[in-house]
């Protein structure tokens, strides 16, 4: 693997880009591994990388049924933030944001992390008070957080609809260190970094069966043969329930919904920040990509599905939400839209935990938080697999929390998965 530096970039610019080597191997599966990670998305790749880097566990396989970056890793709106309030959640996402801030250097790959600020609009005095409570908690934990009044917001983002909007804009809660990254670059960066440490990344390797023996997983049947592993981790987002039932574990407190995202044609610089709002049944978030496209999304489809395609009702809903605050968008054309499969939990928070099977570990239930959580998810999941004990930040993010009455509900939306967007 070529290590990126200024000299290599200049040299290959002069020789027609002919000097680059393959960025990760395409190995044949071994018969045995110390750890098998099912799922070659951002969470699975990050877990494999931190297993090798932090814990010196390098005999690791990542099984991906398609290709790297072909699942939810490439089907999101790439927002990174840590404006969470609940104990455990706040510390977890703040650690993730700190990992993001050094990730390009750590992986020797430009993940294009742009700290352009996350601006969450509020539309009523009550919403302002709620935002102030959340952001004061963040500040007490040492996380950057501020409130912009209407005058400041107009100066920073002058082209929002301040005059006749359906939802009057009163100001915004802002986290300046938040922003965006390039989703496929993050996947490629983790893949090449993990590969360089000895991890086998097995693409087109779909799990077709699981063999259990004496309370543990003995082997995994795949489209590329049977593979044995001492430990197995699931990190497959919306398909978690499928593998869970394959392992004969019954049902999970997870529903699989699809979330659509949209990309427009490229336009001149319009929006320097990530802008978000949610009020009166509307939910919307938007930013501008490095290529000039407007990237935006909104609510889940409120029915369970494994589809990865869009539909017209959500197109209309998201377009209306966009026009409500940025009427100028009405003149640009939509290029494409798609859906990712979201694993929605009953309280809107994730699972990083052990399971009823002694050598099986679960990483799931990311709801809307999966992309931004990728570095910390891999960090803490690797820590759990290596050390058998959950870190204090994630010790309540287990399957038993509902039995104990522990709800890590950031929105206070209640036990309805589709409301935790």
Describe this structure in words.
There is one protein chain. The strands form 3 sheets. Strands 1, 2, 8, 9, 10, 11, 17 and 18 form an 8-stranded mixed beta sheet that branches. An 8-stranded mixed beta sheet has the order 5-6-4-13-14-15-12-16, with helices on both faces. The longest helix has 18 residues. It has 10 helices and 18 strands. It has about 425 residues and is α/β, with parallel strands linked by helices. α2 packs parallel to α7, α2 packs across α10 and α3 packs across α10. The mean pLDDT is about 95.
Tell me briefly what this model is.
This protein has 421 residues and is an alpha/beta fold. The chain contains ten helices and 18 strands.
**Average pLDDT score:** 95
Overall 3D geometry? globular
CA-atom Rg in angstroms:
22 Å
The low-confidence parts are none
Oligomeric description of these chains: single chain
CA distance, first residue to last residue = 39 Å
Number of DSSP strands?
18
Percent of residues in helices: 25-40%
How would the blueprint of this fold be written?
Layout: H1 6-14, E1 32-38, H2 42-55, E2 60-63, E3 79-80, H3 89-101, H4 103-107, E4 118-122, H5 125-140, E5 146-149, H6 150-156, E6 171-175, E7 179-180, H7 183-196, E8 200-202, E9 207-213, E10 216-222, E11 225-234, H8 240-246, E12 254-266, E13 274-279, E14 282-288, E15 293-304, H9 312-325, E16 334-345, E17 351-354, E18 360-364, H10 370-387
Parallel strand pairs: 1-2, 1-11, 2-8, 4-13, 11-18
Antiparallel strand pairs: 3-7, 4-6, 5-6, 9-10, 10-11, 12-15, 12-16, 13-14, 14-15, 17-18
Helix pairs in contact: 2-7, 2-10, 3-10
């Amino acid at each position: 693997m070529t290590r990126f530096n200024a000299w290599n970039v200049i040299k290959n610019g002069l020789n027609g880009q002919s000097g680059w080597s393959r960025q990760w191997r395409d190995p044949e599966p071994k018969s045995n591994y110390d750890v098998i990670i099912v799922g070659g998305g951002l969470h699975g790749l990050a877990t494999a990388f931190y297993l090798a880097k932090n814990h010196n566990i390098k005999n690791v396989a990542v099984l991906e049924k398609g290709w790297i970056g072909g699942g939810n890793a490439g089907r999101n709106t790439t927002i990174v933030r840590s404006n969470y309030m609940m104990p455990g959640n706040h510390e977890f996402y703040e650690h993730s944001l700190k990992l993001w801030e050094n990730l390009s250097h750590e992986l020797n790959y430009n993940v294009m992390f742009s700290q352009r600020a996350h601006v969450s609009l509020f539309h009523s005095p009550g919403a302002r008070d709620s935002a102030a409570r959340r952001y004061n908690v963040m500040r007490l934990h040492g996380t950057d957080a501020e409130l912009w009044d209407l005058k400041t917001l107009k100066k920073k983002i002058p082209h929002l609809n301040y005059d006749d909007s359906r939802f009057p804009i009163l100001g915004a809660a802002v986290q300046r260190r938040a922003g965006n990254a390039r989703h496929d670059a993050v996947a490629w960066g983790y893949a090449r970094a993990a590969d360089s440490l000895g991890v086998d990344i097995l693409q087109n390797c779909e799990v077709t069966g699981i063999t259990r023996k004496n309370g543990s997983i003995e082997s995994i049947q795949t489209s590329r043969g049977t593979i044995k592993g001492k430990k197995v981790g699931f990190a497959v987002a919306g398909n978690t329930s499928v593998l869970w039932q394959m392992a004969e574990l019954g049902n999970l407190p997870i529903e699989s919904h699809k979330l659509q995202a949209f990309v427009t044609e490229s336009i001149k610089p319009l929006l320097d920040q990530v802008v978000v709002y949610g009020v009166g049944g509307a939910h919307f978030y938007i930013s501008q990509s490095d290529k000039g496209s407007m990237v935006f999304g909104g609510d889940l489809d409120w029915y369970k599905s494994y589809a990865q395609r869009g539909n017209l009702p959500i197109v209309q809903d998201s377009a209306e939400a966009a026009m409500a605050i940025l009427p100028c968008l009405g003149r640009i054309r939509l290029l494409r839209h798609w859906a990712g499969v979201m694993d929605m939990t009953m309280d809107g928070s994730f699972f990083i935990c052990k399971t009823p099977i002694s050598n099986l570990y679960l990483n799931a239930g990311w709801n809307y938080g999966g992309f931004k959580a990728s570095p910390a998810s891999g960090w803490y999941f690797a820590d759990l697999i290596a050390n058998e004990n959950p870190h204090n930040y994630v010790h309540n993010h287990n399957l038993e929390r509902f039995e104990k009455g522990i709800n890590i509900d950031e929105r206070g939306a209640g036990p309805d998965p589709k409301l935790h967007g």
